[in-house]
Design goal:
alpha/beta, Cobalt-precorrin-4 Transmethylase, domain 1, two-stranded antiparallel ribbon
Length: about 180
């Protein structure tokens, strides 16, 4: 938070399986007018409504539908508000594999990446590709933020992929099996 309050730009990054558990906490960031990329699916429509009621701008698109326009809009929103969140393995996965979007957004918006993770002491785990979970009523939900990661803007595709792999290596231990 200090980085953001001192004028820096922050991209919060989370795994798909864990992002919904953080929605209750979204309201804590309302004053920053943050954005979040959400798929154009029917499920995404529900999530977008919840996010917007919590003070987040829903940027609709994903790697499989409307991704280029959504990526451009995410970068514009992040530059303007200096806070956004990104689901690093997207709505279709594969689970635990960081896609290029987070690193690309961080480069272009000159943002630091801050991984965040959620857990719940009681949750329903879906039979999905990533074991998406939904906290049960009255369960204790914990959010944990990782260290800031600053990626040097690179043009070389090999170096870009190394940065992408680094983010995945940092975040993967918090993926719930």
């Amino acid at each position: 938070m200090e980085h953001l309050q001192s004028g820096g730009t922050v991209l919060l990054c989370v795994w798909h399986q864990q992002f919904f558990s953080a929605i209750r906490h979204f309201q804590n960031y309302r004053k920053f007018d943050p954005s979040l990329m959400i798929s154009q699916s029917k499920d995404g429509e529900i999530i977008a409504g919840v996010a917007e009621r919590s003070g987040w701008r829903a940027v609709r698109g994903s790697s499989s539908h409307g991704g280029a326009a959504a990526l451009k809009e995410m970068i514009q929103q992040l530059r303007a508000s200096r806070l956004a969140s990104h689901i690093v393995d997207g709505p279709r996965g594969p689970a635990g594999v960081v896609k290029a979007g987070a690193v690309r957004i961080a480069h272009v918006a000159n943002a630091v990446v801050v991984p965040f993770y959620t857990t719940a002491d009681k949750a329903w785990y879906f039979n999905s590709r990533d074991r998406f979970f939904l906290p049960k009523p009255f369960s204790k939900v914990s959010l944990r933020f990782g260290d800031m990661i600053e990626f040097e803007r690179v043009k070389d595709s090999e170096r870009f992929e190394q940065q992408q792999q680094y983010l995945e290596d940092v975040m993967r231990p918090a993926l719930i099996p």
